[in-house]
Batch of 4 targets.
Target 1
Amino acid sequence: MFLRMPHISFLALFWGATALALPSKSPTSSVPSCRYALEYSQEGVLKDPESFISDFLYWEGKFHQNNVSYNTENGCSYDGTQIDWNTGEATVKHSFSAASKESLQIMLYAQAISGSQCAARWLSPDKPSAAADIAVSVLEKKLTAYLNFNETYPGFGGFLPWFTSDEQDLSPTWDWVNRVPALDNGELLWAVYGAIQALETSPNESYRELAKEWSKWLDYTKSTAAKMFYAGDGNVCTVMDIANQSWPVNDPRQRYTCESNSTLDDPYEGELFTWWLYFYSDLSAQDKELLWEVKRPQLVSVEYNMGGVGPITVQQGWWFSSHEQWKVLEMPYYDVDLVRRLFTNAERARTCNSVVTSTPGMFASVNNITNTTSGELLGYISAAGIPSISSQTEQEHDVITPYSVFPTLLVDQQVGLAWLRNMLIGKKMQNPYGSTESTRVDGTGVSALLTWDSKVTTVNALLGGVQDLVRQGLKKEGLYNAFINVTEREYSRVFKDLKGEDINLCLPKESIPDTGLVDFTSCS
Ligand SMILES: *[C@@H]1O[C@H](CO)[C@@H](O)[C@H](O)[C@H]1NC(C)=O
Ligand SMILES: *[C@@H]1O[C@H](CO)[C@@H](O)[C@H](O)[C@H]1NC(C)=O
Ligand SMILES: *[C@@H]1O[C@H](CO)[C@@H](O)[C@H](O)[C@H]1NC(C)=O
Ligand SMILES: *[C@@H]1O[C@H](CO)[C@@H](O)[C@H](O)[C@H]1NC(C)=O
Ligand SMILES: *[C@@H]1O[C@H](CO)[C@@H](O)[C@H](O)[C@H]1NC(C)=O
Ligand SMILES: *[C@@H]1O[C@H](CO)[C@@H](O)[C@H](O)[C@H]1NC(C)=O
Ligand SMILES: *[C@@H]1O[C@H](CO)[C@@H](O)[C@H](O)[C@H]1NC(C)=O
Ligand SMILES: *[C@@H]1O[C@H](CO)[C@@H](O)[C@H](O)[C@H]1NC(C)=O
């Protein structure tokens, strides 16, 4: 190991120099060093974001491996994998996954198919021209897995529960037998919609054929969504209990029951499922309007005002975790000027709050650090964000995560990258598969883990999500104006004059303290 590393960094320097000497050569052909973040200053990233992005995508792409992030046999994702505390090599994988992780994988493939150089850098840096075919071959297997799942467990109506994917056939995890969530599936549906757009518009006929096959799966969910999830009076169930997952949706014995009184009425990522029901279900026009009415009380205007920064008008968060902004990766919300401005304000608040509170990174729901004695993760921290502009004010702020930057990247790429770099330079925050899950603010621990959520949200944000593909599809279907109208209507009811639009987004001021943690030896 120790003999190998200097050799690799020599190569990296060599290729770097070559790339500089040959302006005609694409920078994507160079092999960056694993710990590339240390080679950039903040000014360097701001001045030349492209090379930092190129290095970032190269190493994040190492996550895309069999038995690490997905199963090459069936094309389906794994939630992620733990890595060795010392070396950083993959150890114990999470053999389960969910529709939300699937959505991140599919969004990435959608952009690879539509020709994104960034997606190719992630998926196939050695041969970017092969990226689309790689994506298509995984999507073929994935579709087979989904169709087989539907055949074995027709009670899910085409949707996915949390599932295990380490065998050829998917099956519900033990705690999701006869249960299915709406939110994650909303994320999956629009990602597939985007991928179908990319396939459909390809000059390759076999891609267009695959689009047709995926459309059958997607169209099937249009016929089952309301039957399964709609509880009447505008209410959508967060989690449905299924009488028997082996019975078809239309079986006279089949029953769907709301698991609790909790309904999917959030104005955050859960809204992706609302749109599916609004556009494609057979609900009455009145029920479709009610879908939006029940959500209204949750769409709230608040002002960030702390440490001399503000007031900044933002949409109140649940916790104000970056995770909550997922919907803007998938649908063209920013086409509504008010929403784009409001979500830019959110990043003013997010970035400046971390400066005001002397935090070296930003907050998002994420896995806690590794207990180095037991080797186990200390649980999942959901309640991480900004309490002063959230409805849930009981929060925990000891851990930050690189993926907190994904919504920032969508509105100001350079500032987002500066924050990303600031977290990546922390001890152990890079490993042979790119970024590490999370680190304590005080630098005393990290989460020796890799997940789709904490890694590929950021990658997708750099690709612009699938907003462009979904916009194109909605226009083709004649649904785009309705999307804009409803979004505009709902947001302009609550938000009139936005305060704080003249405030600059903030750049990081603090560093993660070095408390003696040693970098992963496979990435030093
Ligand atoms: C897959 O990963 C597991 C750990 O999650 C490991 O035990 C197993 O050997 C790996 N299999 C292959 C084929 O690499
Ligand atoms: C079309 O896609 C198929 C399947 O990925 C691939 O094998 C083939 O080379 C492609 N054809 C062209 C002309 O690109
Ligand atoms: C899913 O299974 C149901 C019930 O067997 C079937 O009617 C439906 O066509 C299947 N959906 C797809 C996309 O194959
Ligand atoms: C669910 O349905 C399957 C197939 O009809 C049957 O074998 C199984 O016993 C049923 N389970 C329950 C709990 O009713
Ligand atoms: C749901 O709400 C009803 C009426 O408000 C209440 O009686 C019931 O206990 C609630 N159920 C659960 C599971 O919270
Ligand atoms: C870490 O693991 C050790 C050994 O299992 C245990 O004694 C200790 O309480 C754990 N620490 C925390 C913070 O959970
Ligand atoms: C995270 O770990 C810290 C110890 O580092 C512990 O104090 C805290 O309670 C944990 N939080 C959760 C939600 O597990
Ligand atoms: C959207 O709003 C415009 C202007 O209010 C209106 O003319 C148009 O008919 C609406 N379109 C749809 C599809 O709702």
Target 2
Amino acid sequence: MTSPGTARLKALDSDHHLHPFTDFKALSEEGSRIITAASGVYIQDADGQRMLDGMAGLWCVNLGYGRQELVDAASQQMTQLPYYNTFFKTAHPPAIELAAELCRLAPDHINHVFFTGSGSEANDTMLRMVRRFWALKGKPEKQWIISRENGYHGSTVAGMSLGGMAPMHEQGGPCVPGITHIRQPYWFGEGRDMNREEFGKVCADALEARILELGPDNVAAFLAEPVQGAGGAIMPPDSYWPAVKAVLEKYDILLVIDEVICGFGRLGEWFGSQHYDLKPDLMPIAKGLSSGYLPIGGVLVGDRIAETLVQEGGEFYHGFTYSGHPVCAAVALKTLEIMQRENIVERVRDDLGPYLAKRWATLADHPLVGEARSLGLMGALELVADKATGERFDSSLAVGSMCRDTCFDTGLVMRSVGDTMIISPPLVITHDEIDALVSLARAALDETARQLAASFHLTSLTSESCS
Ligand SMILES: *Cc1c(COP(=O)(O)O)cnc(C)c1O
């Protein structure tokens, strides 16, 4: 039952609140689900329903909800010094300590960080740094940044231009010039007519072809997520990254790895690029950096770039009011401390990731599932109309959103990207909670199949192993 208080909130929300990535009209008609509390890996809505948060908020609440230590860190810093900037030759202890700690945790060749307020700002910063670097090196014509279709790098003008989300490009353009996109290494979606590893090489070849088309002397950097997150939890074939690295080395092109999701333990290493042994020149970070408790992001800057910017750069005309915000930095620092004390990264790599992989794979037998994949604590299910051929549902059926809504009703937050269902739970999830997540996912798949069968008189789509 919806209480009068909740009804009032829903009405006000419909009347006044424009939500991110939302069809405003549709939402104002349907009303939103209002989340009021959370603890551990569970969230609760205003109607009292409890849901297992399979998305860790938005890929960020890695330490789970209700961490009093993070609250205390924020509160103490608020009392001590709620704000001061880091412009004009000033600094404060939280930003300094956080910078040092991040560089200690990052790969050896990374020893500097520039703070931002978000992942989008981190990518904007990265873009300016990359072009500035090449200008300082006497190669100002090295301007082009190559990124990938269906990559996600944020929603500011630079972020959406760097990202490869076509629907975003169609709104509010034109995009930032000098950015081009190549095909993504999405085997299930685009490569099933060849074997995975062959397909990985074909996608790396597309990078070399684009570099040659633009002229290697005009290409500044290649930007990618280690595993595409918002695009659908897409793990590239094993052949992909080594081949990409070889191409970039051949033409002296910088590698930027967007660690906003994969950083801070998601793939079982501090940074996703370590899982793939990438040694990037720059790494935008955000989200898990503060476990989502407060907004903070940054760019980790490799020595090659930092040396040039520091020694030869002069003033870099860039920064944000909230770059290195003391309260956000204090919470991020505490987040990193807790992650180390509780061995979270090692646990994801050695225990939770392998356990999720085993349990998640059991969903592959479901009649709606064409592929179940996972790496670390990120997973995806490809929903298909025909399991044998992998044929997709007609997109007008919006089976993915049907499944997502069903998940909500079943008590699980699982996101849909088209007909790909994705999870990215808090890194503190237990084995029992992983079991619960997988059975809730199966129940939601069954219910989705039932709804499909009811509307289209399809049969035999429900799972046999669920009773
Ligand atoms: C979320 C995300 C961003 C943007 O971060 P915001 O904090 O939303 O601006 C950038 N890159 C990746 C890979 C992301 O997942």
Target 3
Amino acid sequence: MQAAGSPGDQEIGQDYYEKLGVTKIINAAGTYTILTASIMPPSVQAAVARAAKNPVRLLELQAKAGEYIARKLQCEAAMVTSGASGALTLGTAACIDVMNDAPVEVVPMQVASMKNEVIIQKAHRYSYDHAIENCGAHLVEVETVADYEQAFSPKTAMAHFFNAAEGGQIGREDWVRIAHRYKIPCFNDAAADVPPISNLWNYTRMGFDLVTFSGGKGIRGPQNAGLLLGKRDLIAAAAATNNPFDEGIGRGLKVAKEQIIGMVAAVDWFLEQSDDGMQAEFLKRAESIAADLRAVPTIQSRILVPEIANHVPHLFITYDQQAVRISPLQVAAELRKGTPSIELNPSTGRREGSKGIQSDENTIVVGVWMLQPGEEKIVGRRLHEVLSKATQT
Ligand SMILES: *Cc1c(COP(=O)(O)O)cnc(C)c1O
């Protein structure tokens, strides 16, 4: 079954998913990389297809795309990267190169004896540490402000902040202010932290020297693209270590012309949206699914908005498993097996789920923001079928 309203309906080109036997899914989860994150809006898909028709000079495209994005997002400079993870690597390499006044080739093999320390709060350690450590950087953990002040050394190259971290004693503004007192550049990883749209300029304005956003999450650009925003000298250094140049760590972090243009078009699309409009649409979808489940015995639904990352309405469903004899994990498996195949939010039936999504063994979580128009009806119907079937009568 074709996902309702998907822009590819009467489209040019072969359906290679079909040809390969790849299952198309309904994404009731969210912007998860493993589920190919977001669907580009039609205007972005069209821009990508059109960009594919002409060769251009890559350096000119990179430079002009960066200038355009910097202007739109009110920062000094910007570049399109191969995702937020790629931006972490390029940005860290840039800090190391600039702080050591060293050529791009030093990263990662020669930096052990140079400024290569990156200060980070212990509570901000995360799976993307690798993207930083790829540069030969050494992470130095701090907890208190006093620790932080003491951590600055002749080896310090960067201070790193994980914007959606749930712990950490030191707030953004203090983090930046103190780093700058020691003349150290400060990076904020805000990959998953739009909406609100204004976050695209909030953190650079706050003084962060580098900020990254994933392109394939809330901005709905190409999945293999992202944004690195920040200070002119650091973005220039990041560009120097990026492809097409062969000497830097970014050679493998290639972004093709189609995706560079797609990222620019996605920024345009995203800036045309409004926070209220998006929230209202997501709320409507969540309410529609909740309404479809009203007749299921003991059902309770709540709509909650996570604080920072995934900051959009999510639907949380609980019920008495004595009356409805199926666990949330079994419900997720049933929806996955069905036609069309539906993916619920991975926090379904789990205590440790995604950032800011408080779930447990007894909760179904529906992420509605990546649904395509009309798909909430299918999700509501399938959830109703599966839960009703499990109801003792
Ligand atoms: C998703 C994410 C990334 C990686 O983003 P990509 O664009 O997939 O590379 C990095 N950091 C955080 C906090 C994220 O949520």
Target 4
Amino acid sequence: MMVHKSSMAPFHTLAVLLWLRIAISAPAIAAGCERSCGGVEIPYPFGLDPNCALPGFNLSCNTTGDGKPYFVNVEVLSISLLAAQARMRMDISKECYNESSGLMNNGTNWWLDLSDTPYKLSDSGNRFTVIGCRTLAYIGASTPDDIGSSLTTGCVATCGQDGVASLTNGACSGIGCCQTAIPKGLQNYQVWFDDRFNTTSIYNLSRCSYAALVEASNFTFFANYATSSAFNDYYGGQAPLVLDWSIGNKTCNEAQKMPDYACVSSHSECFNSSSGLGYICNCSQGFHGNPYLKPEDPGSCKDIDECKDPKNYPCPGGECHNKPGGFNCTCPAGSRGNATIPGGCRNDFLTLKARVAIGASACVLAGLFGFLGWEVIRQKRSIKKQALLRQNDEFFQQHGGELLLEMMRAEGNVGFTIYDREEIEAATDNFSKMNIIGEGGQGTVYRAVLDGVVVAIKMCKEIDESRRKDFVQELVILCRVRHPNVVKLLGCCLQFEAPMLVYEFVRNKTLQELLDLQRSRRFHATLGTRLRIAAESAFALAHIHSLPHPILHGDVKPANILLAEGLVAKVSDFGCSTIDEKTQAVPKGTPGYLDPDYLLEYQLTAKNDVYSFGVILLELLTGKRPLSKERKSLTSMFQEAMVDGTLLELLDSDIVNEASMGVIHQAAVLASQCLVVPGSTRPTMRRVAEELRRLARADELQQYPQQPLVIESHSFMEIGSTCTTSLWYAGSNTTGVYSLENKVVQSTEFAR
Ligand SMILES: *[C@@H]1O[C@H](CO)[C@@H](O)[C@H](O)[C@H]1NC(C)=O
Ligand SMILES: *[C@@H]1O[C@H](CO)[C@@H](O)[C@H](O)[C@H]1NC(C)=O
Ligand SMILES: *[C@@H]1O[C@H](CO)[C@@H](O)[C@H](O)[C@H]1NC(C)=O
Ligand SMILES: *[C@@H]1O[C@H](CO)[C@@H](O)[C@H](O)[C@H]1NC(C)=O
Ligand SMILES: *[C@@H]1O[C@H](CO)[C@@H](O)[C@H](O)[C@H]1NC(C)=O
Ligand SMILES: *[C@@H]1O[C@H](CO)[C@@H](O)[C@H](O)[C@H]1NC(C)=O
Ligand SMILES: *[C@@H]1O[C@H](CO)[C@@H](O)[C@H](O)[C@H]1NC(C)=O
Ligand SMILES: *[C@@H]1O[C@H](CO)[C@@H](O)[C@H](O)[C@H]1NC(C)=O
Ligand SMILES: *[C@@H]1O[C@H](CO)[C@@H](O)[C@H](O)[C@H]1NC(C)=O
Ligand SMILES: *[C@@H]1O[C@H](CO)[C@@H](O)[C@H](O)[C@H]1NC(C)=O
Ligand SMILES: *[C@@H]1O[C@H](CO)[C@@H](O)[C@H](O)[C@H]1NC(C)=O
Ligand SMILES: *[C@@H]1O[C@H](CO)[C@@H](O)[C@H](O)[C@H]1NC(C)=O
């Protein structure tokens, strides 16, 4: 059976072809099986001959070549029965500067497909690792849970404005090196590079970029990796990769009833594989050996003779008796105590009377010590509490708490609360995992109840020393933002190591979830709804861009657009993200939405948000993901389609109809304007928002000509600290101005 997929682009691709022969015969282990190859132990169920292995666990020993074990054409480094893992060597993908074309297009991209094999890529053991000075590499895979769906994620490595000076040995944090985790249970992956970056100016500095899925514990970053071929050379072009393996695709309960159940040792137990389908076997407690071998085999699970291993099973003062599955360490006759600790056995000489007397005085002493002990504990506790308070104050100072208080005093009441550590701890149930509602690069979000109100509390990643003042300044600005399409910042707590931000809680889904539902056809959003959500998000971004002290978002993506009641868009994730973004040369944006301009300039501008927004607009129009396994980003597919006039093929069939084509085309033109590189000619967020509002209205009129009804959205003018909003009405209707204070703005649902 051929195991690789044929959908691969042949260009630049050296495929690792996997062929697997599944033995049909029942497993019967022939005598005289070779159990080692090239210094690697090959325990059953693995074997170097189909007769010596369980189906699918057949390896070959390259006796004519390097003498090493291979799984088809992938070298096997080691096999662990206990961890149910195998380590193999997988090729490192690379992309080098091509002098004749001035592009990064001279390289090899490897891919691996382990479908229908016992192996899965270990999510805990590996990290997708990218090395380079101006590179964005992607890893793509089909996920096992949802056939047809796919994972694509990426990782960006840059050398920042300071060039190689900022490279640090050991730190793989985006400068010259970046790492990202993969999901559980994957059986295939492929790697490719984004070729949009012009590296002409740095190729002397860093000629090649590298990317591979690498055993996390085996990798340490060295500064010269980013500027030479040292990474590739160190690993000889192939990096170690950890694979989880399991038997079959049934659970323990099902497998136990089958004739080919593999846990055949009489002292073995079955465990469901933690990485997906199938099970693994282990020897029972107190036994060691190979659980996959029959009891009569000498290698099968055998009792551990603990008495012969006093290092791990000490019995220094007593007599050791081995028992099946354990041991018994007793004090010699005539003594009692705990024989497992040195000097733990005491001679048993005391008479009953003496024991009673000693017992009585012991009671008195115990009482006295107990009282003293309690006093000491009380003292200690109060000292600890004071220390904690001091520490809280320290964090408060560190995060610029005084400055915040001062600013708040100067500003007057801004409707912003500074919460105490205890309040936050109580509200989140001590940061209970149960309350986590979101986890991302910027921090973790908890659902919490504060003063009887449901809120979302975000634990920021730590902030930079030099940015402290700006952080506080931005908090003050953010807390004054009152816009119906911006998630409201209610307060903060600065008494933790990392600042906590308290936001209004938005009950419903994110735009990301809506798009996923749409893709699987479990939800149908009309063009009007999509344009309205886009317009509302655009107005929110336009609003924060146009504040007297503009705020940039820096990580605009559907997962950061929350949808409230009636699918009203609320842009979230200001605060930690915006604050981090400007300090660091390393982009923290999300692959797929990240402006290529940013990688070149290392300077966040409003135009970066416009680009990311353009990608969202494309997603709304096409229903496609920004990154796909086809190795082409949605933006390049779109740009090609616009040039070739094949846009219709790319659009989401759900929204295409004759009446809407005019509006869709105009929206597509707007999206392409947002995606222009370089970014200086992109429209402002304000213009994008107004255009989208116009298009939404045009669509509304087209779809429902009899009812030229209400039109969205909210263009906000800030007058002092009071926000007012204008509501637009379609047709000849007037424009009304309402004060936010006495009228809650309602966004009208377009979807019908
Ligand atoms: C299984 O073993 C046979 C005989 O050594 C070999 O020809 C075949 O390639 C092996 N299959 C795998 C998947 O290694
Ligand atoms: C066996 O080793 C040689 C080099 O020593 C290598 O070229 C060949 O690819 C190896 N065989 C397999 C199956 O990988
Ligand atoms: C492609 O890369 C190789 C090294 O990986 C180099 O020797 C070769 O000159 C490059 N070709 C071009 C056209 O840049
Ligand atoms: C260099 O780029 C040109 C133009 O894209 C391409 O035809 C050529 O194959 C590339 N060279 C290598 C070695 O990849
Ligand atoms: C890359 O940038 C250089 C200037 O740094 C320019 O001369 C060259 O044409 C650009 N290459 C491409 C392929 O755009
Ligand atoms: C790279 O090095 C070559 C040869 O040393 C030199 O001719 C070229 O100008 C350099 N290019 C850049 C961009 O520094
Ligand atoms: C990484 O893996 C290789 C191959 O198994 C091994 O030789 C090397 O010692 C490992 N290095 C570390 C740091 O674990
Ligand atoms: C389980 O494995 C058997 C044989 O290996 C195969 O026929 C069957 O389709 C697999 N089932 C699933 C759910 O993968
Ligand atoms: C230890 O062995 C003694 C004698 O063999 C037995 O009486 C005792 O119950 C054993 N203790 C435990 C904990 O098994
Ligand atoms: C004896 O001491 C060991 C090590 O301190 C401890 O783990 C064990 O529980 C003790 N046994 C008894 C019976 O107190
Ligand atoms: C939004 O949340 C409310 C309350 O939980 C629910 O009734 C409503 O169906 C949700 N709407 C969507 C579109 O998810
Ligand atoms: C404007 O629209 C509102 C709401 O639909 C309606 O109540 C009002 O009568 C309209 N005014 C005019 C002048 O059409």
